[in-house]
Amino acid sequence: MLERLPRASVHLAVTSPPYNVGIRYAGYSDDRSYEEYRAWLRTVWSALLPVLVPGGRLALNVAPTSIKDFRPIHHDLSHDLRELSYRLRTEIIWYKQTMGRRTAWGSWRSPASPHIIPSWEYVLVLSKGSHRLEGDPRTADISAAEFQRFSDGFWRIPPERNRRGHPAPFPWDLVERLVKFYTYRGNLVLDMFGGTGTVAAVARANGRHYLSVDASPEYCDGALRRVRAARGTGRPAIPAANRVLLADELVPSP
């Protein structure tokens, strides 16, 4: 699907791929070998790069996986992306506030083998070529208070509670911060692991074009309903490039 998109057409990709930890997704097997998993994602990053505009961004949500067999996939994916010539801009700490009752202490009250349970995930922000994204400053819609709050890279945002039939959905607020901080109104925002369509719905509600892609007809159906129900900010709608697509659909030129 990415290879069919017009070159230099996407301003921001916001996505979170499967973490390869055996989660039951519709239409995808989440149990590759780690080497196969990284190689598969490299094909995704390679296909994305040509369709980003100069200065276009990738906001990639990832998290360390497992306790006993700890895999710092945020480090590994960052390495792979930089090898493909993406420029790493920053790391956002998404603090999920999920530390409640639990039993995975490792060695309780002992330094023998205690466990640290991550209550956060990362959002890696990378760009293509230039750090600067050109655009009309009159179409920037972030307030001064939002800019100050979002530019602090420690984001306290609860996880999404309404899963909408998907095992790992984004929270709306996380995506909206990224969209408002990194794009102008009228820019095109892409999620190539579209899931429940949060990225597309947020983009529509904030006056951006959107493209959401997923291999699952079930997820695409739900995403389409969600996008149609998304309410904008009172400004005129932008209908031209708005699409929610199955991975085998053809993408028309804009």
Q: What features would you highlight for this structure?
A:
about 250 residues, alpha/beta, Rossmann fold, eight-stranded mixed beta sheet, two-stranded antiparallel ribbon, 6 helices, 10 strands, about 25% helix, disordered C terminus
Mean pLDDT across all amino acids: 82
Number of helices: 6
CATH-derived topology: Rossmann fold
> What is the count of structural domains?
1
In order across it, which strands form the biggest sheet? 7-5-6-4-1-8-9-10
Which blocks of ≥5 consecutive residues have pLDDT under 50? Answer: 234-241, 247-254
Beta-strand content: 15-25%
Oligomer: single chain
Alpha-beta classification? alpha/beta
CATH superfamily (homologous) name = Vaccinia Virus protein VP39
CATH architecture term: 3-Layer(aba) Sandwich
CATH domain class = Alpha Beta
What is the radius of gyration computed over CA atoms, rounded to a whole number of angstroms?
18 Å
User: Helix and strand string, N-terminal first?
Assistant: EEEHEHEEHEHEHEHE
Give the biggest beta sheet: 8 strands, mixed
* SS elements, strand count: 10
Taking the alpha carbons of the first and last residues, their distance comes to 15 Å
Shape descriptor reads globular
Helix percent reads 25-40%
